[in-house]
Amino acid sequence: MFFNLLKSKPTLQELIPNGFIDIHSHILPGIDDGAKNIKESDNLISGMKKLGFSKIIGTPHTYQGLFDNTNESIKASFNLLKKNLKEEIEIDYASEYMIDGSLLKRIEDRSLLTIKDNYVLVEMSFISAPNDLYEIIFNLRLNNYIPIIAHPERYIFFFDDFKQYFQLKKMGCKFQINMLSVAGYYGDIVLKMADKLLKNDLINFVGSDIHSQKHIEYFNKKIQISEIEKFEKAVNTNKIFK
Question: N or C terminus: which one in the chain shows less Cβ crowding within 10 Å?
């Protein structure tokens, strides 16, 4: 019975709808911890197209002191990729911004690269929440940005303080779950938090967060969450970024 229950669950690939738009990936070459060069970018994009992706938005990290990307460096990497792209597939670019003090200046300058319109992808350190988290979120909202918080299911420091998720939502944040999380790629604790966030209707969008071929291969794994319908709903909501 237990085996049949597991067997009945779909793979990640089976849940990718026609026209799927990925809002979080690391396909741009030589700019962060994703694709190192054009060849790797091509291989990743080819694999993503075979999975059923129809549009991929490259979102390299912008993280002061580690990945000191600028709008110019990101655009240059994107243009290089587009010029050499072998696959016929739509690509675009934005960034995944670390929530830290350096983000405040970018907000002030209104220079953030957005996923679409005023939606901006942001992330936190996996070690601890920023001291000025709510100040930065407030400033994003004050400047009419809509923060999409990447992979909230991976912020272990919130697991024993679940109300923080509701507070962030109350402030106008959207949540983007990593697709690999629901198949157990990041471990059981993240898997359980992904299910809990879905159960509480806190997830708005999904993203592949693909960095490597290993991530693409994991799309053949069966999903392990119980909130399958709510996950599918989030997958389909990505169509607003068309």
Answer: N
Q: What is the mean pLDDT of the chain?
A: 95
Helix, strand, coil percentages in the chain from 3-state DSSP, rounded to 5:
45, 20, 35
**Which domains are seen in the chain, by residue range?**
2-241 (3.20.20.140)
Q: By C-alpha distance, which of 95, 130, 133 is closest to 112? A: 95
Dihedral Cα 115, 120, 95, 116, nearest 10 deg: 10
* Chain CA centroid to CA 45, Å: 16
Assign 78 to helix, strand or coil: helix
User: Helices (DSSP H) in 162-226: which residue ranges?
Assistant: 163-170, 188-199, 213-217
Share of the chain above pLDDT 90, in %: 95
